[in-house]
Amino acid sequence: MAYFLGIDAGGSHCRGRLADESGRILGEAEGGPANTRVGVDLVHARISEVAGAAAAEAGLDEAATATIRAGMGIAGIGRTGVREALAELPFPFATTEYATDAAIANLGAHLGHDGATLIIGTGSVAMVSAGGRSFTIGGYGFPISDEGSGAALGLSAVRHALRALDGRTEPTALSRAITADFAHDTAQVVAWMDAASPAEYAAFAPLVMDYAENGDTIARSIVEDAASHIERFIETIFARGAERCALAGGLSRRIRPWLRARTSEQLIAPQADPLDGALLLAGLPASAVPTRR
């Protein structure tokens, strides 16, 4: 029996899926944030925890675990020195292949064929495979990048909330909901900001979407701005040679209705998800991956 492990380590959570050579799922698990910004040691620990839980669900002992072929898509793995640092903290598997979280999303979306995937989650990044080339667009990290992402929505909401507390803009239901977490005290918001992670900003994104869908004027303006960034992403993806594009990431379904019809109509449904892409990276044949639209 051959075993394949797929890992999707992102800014909000780390997920794992264990499958056999037929593509049958044997175990799945989820843990906390595993973007490399939290530190390589913590990323290694999170992945180990999730992998261990998936193996335990599958009933694999230590000997069977040692035969696993693993594929890991890790947000931020392209940062200088990260791959080398991970090599110093090996996993107990037969083989381990690394890629970015964008790469595994694109592998899953198109089952290894040419295409593009725009991830809209805690951060945002596009992965394009076209004409024998693979490259990313955006994804430089929060706050200088990640336009249209959950973290960007959260940042905009916090900024508006602070301006409303100052009296520089009219408070809305959204601003009051944001500052309620801080007893409507600017000093508490600033203290939180000093250590807040992208995932903590992104935690406000569902709230922003809720209020936007209910007509809050500021929430709507924030989401409309995010949608304009995503539309520009998609325009650039096609301009740079992609023939098809899918969306992925935790925010993608909620933001899509805010895109213009002509943009949304260009998108296709992914054939499989990023965890399946990680299984492909590990070596699972594409023919063994069931579509999970």
Description:
β1 and β2 form a beta hairpin. The strands form 2 sheets. A 5-stranded mixed beta sheet has the order 3-2-1-4-5, sandwiched between helices. A 5-stranded mixed beta sheet has the order 8-7-6-9-10, with helices on both faces. α4 packs across α13, α5 packs across α6 and α5 runs antiparallel to α10. 43% of the residues lie in helices and 19% in strands. The protein is an alpha/beta fold and 293 residues long. The model has no long low-confidence stretch (mean pLDDT 94).
In short:
The chain has 293 residues and is of the alpha/beta class.
- The helix tally amounts to 13
Helix content: 40-55%
DSSP, total strands: 10
Any low-confidence stretches, pLDDT <50, length ≥5?
none
Broad structural category: alpha/beta
Radius of gyration: 20 Å
Query: What is the strand content?
Result: 15-25%
| Strand order in the largest sheet | 3-2-1-4-5
The major β-sheet equals: 5 strands, mixed
What tags apply to this protein structure?
13 helices, 293 residues, five-stranded mixed beta sheet, 19% strand, 10 strands, alpha/beta, single chain, 43% helix
